[in-house]
Amino acid sequence: MSDIDREQNSPLPEAPAAMVLAAGFGRRMRPLTDRLPKPMLPVAGKPLIEHAIERLAKVGVRRAVVNLGHLGHRIREHLGDGARWGLEIQYSVEEEPLETAGGILRALPLLGDQPFWVVNGDVWCDFDLDLWRRRPLPDGCPGRLLMVPNPPHNPGGDFGIDKGLLSGSASPRYTFAGISWLDPEVLSGYPRARARFGLGEVFTHNEGRLQAELYDGDWCDVGTPERLERLEERLKF
User: pTM, whole model, 2 decimals?
Assistant: First the structure.
């Protein structure tokens, strides 16, 4: 039996928990975000964050944590306890902005001690997370990042990829897609002097240890009203 046959015939590992980042202010989306948090802005007939929850449920996630900030009650009112998608949703409320890494660190007690998915609630992407579920993180690897070709609003990219690992010096550079699979230790063990900090500095600290994978499929960081409108038009067809 080939390695491929073994992989296809082996039982899938239990799907990890997931963190959906949804606490940002979305200032560039104003005036739309004066009444709705950015992840609740509709595209293709439903809020952006609902697309993310549906994809997570589809690959077997049974527990998701959503962090809440600006107008977070609107997200909680819409998603509820997650039962309609067959998963449990818990909420991590941030009284003040903690940025991406700070928000995840605060939510770690709800996520458990196993690697978990992190998905930006304001990103659209059709990447099949089940591909990662079939490839557990190797021993000693603290996480895996999805990278995409640079969009016009980030022409310089964020990181390069060197032999499958994240690199700050490798060329070409690509843009972080806002989708990752992280071991809790990458955050709990990160040396920091403040509660508020971003994932970018955590990733930089772990260059050469984090896996990185380039994805050339459908992806959009819905950061402005114009990008939201373009995505809506694209998904009509």
Answer: 0.90
